[in-house]
Amino acid sequence: MSNKYSVDRRKFLQRSAVGLAIASTTHVTIASESKSAAQVKSAGDGIIDSEVDVLVVGGGTAGTIAAIQSGRAGARTLLLERNGQLGGTTTIGGVAFPGLFDAWGKQVIAGIGWELVSDTVELDGGTFPDFSKVPPRHWQNQVHVNPFVYAILAEEKCEKAGVQVAYYEFPESIRKTGDGWQVDCIGFGTRRRVMCKQIIDCTGGAEVVGMLGLPRLREDETQPGSMLFKIGEAHQPGREQLHRLYVHGADSTNSRTVTLANLTGRKVVLAKVRQAKGRLMHLQPETGFRESYRIVGETMVTHEDYVSGRLYDDAVSYAFYPVDLHTKTGVRPKPLKPGTVPTIPLGALVPKNSRNIIVAGRCVCSDRLANSGLRVQASCMGMGQAAGVAAALAAQKQTTPLAVPLAEIHQTLRAHGAIIPS
Ligand SMILES: Cc1cc2nc3c(=O)[nH]c(=O)nc-3n(C[C@H](O)[C@H](O)[C@H](O)COP(=O)(O)OP(=O)(O)OC[C@H]3O[C@@H](n4cnc5c(N)ncnc54)[C@H](O)[C@@H]3O)c2cc1C
Known about the structure:
alpha/beta, 10 helices, 22 strands, binds flavin-adenine dinucleotide
């Protein structure tokens, strides 16, 4: 059976909610051999113009959730991702065991992140931890997800929310305009000019904030990254963790530093393969990065704030994880005291003295020890959802995220299933 497709490039790009396929300036006809085969159209060129309310940069752990939330809140949303799939460290890095959604016997983070995680587990026939129990070790309540299912479901949720996804693209320059930003982006064989009202920086290391010249924090020595792989038995995605090795000095800041981390990590894997009796059964395509830059925000979450479970007036999400700083010699997680559940203030997501930009993810404004607990995936998803709401409402009201009434942010978050600290 063959399906014939004939699509005008511009119309296709306007209509397509997820920019998975690009058609050329002339009409193209592609024949597909079977009903289930994917149809891929020919490559395009030239500059594309996108006018949106919210631009999310980075489709990783936090950014995917931010974009879905922004779209569901009614904002025209574009999601740029330099890689070729959604999920970031959760999928490309292979850290497919997000935590922690629960604390002390009850769920504290829900919303869109939890929806994506639980839909993934259900479709994959996996199992959930029993959140009503407090396990002896914190990682026992992390949820194993099949990263392949997770990434595709994330795309489906983006599409349904009206989010346009642009893979292999990233900002090259940014200029302030009267009511927002002009962001010139580059991909291979393509360029895009984005006019947007709000930016959500979910690049992990606050790369957009850096491009704008806003201050960021960084330690002289950062936590190691890790390369995830498996030698011996076949890997069972969604059922077990991969093997991992530290990549010291791993830095997510630019393509040169990411290349170096990948080359370094893979060399060690190769040495292990040569030593080992078993076969290399799995290797992630990219190093997982634990730490690079954090923003200087309106509010800084300190170690003391984190371990005391400070309840901020402008809290938008809970966070829960031990203080978990990896060093050259390893990690000794320091669990929080019973009953303690830290919170994340909106002010920690907003770069100081900025307008029309907000961040979510591991770059949240925090000192190093607080960040070692805040950086985990459930917390990043909670931040992503909050940033998505704040940016969408700010765009709607023609203001900046910090000027949106907090009660409206809370109300919208609740309406989309999130748990607000109280
Ligand atoms: C080895 C390891 C083990 C971990 N263990 C756990 C654990 O057990 N449990 C847990 O919950 N968390 C764990 N974490 C922490 C957690 O996975 C990360 O901190 C979290 O996923 C970071 O989310 P993020 O959204 O900030 O960044 P990411 O998920 O890394 O997303 C950033 C995204 O932005 C994209 N990007 C970057 N720059 C640009 C650009 N200029 N333009 C466009 N796109 C860009 C990247 O490609 C990526 O997709 C671990 C981390 C590592 C590395």
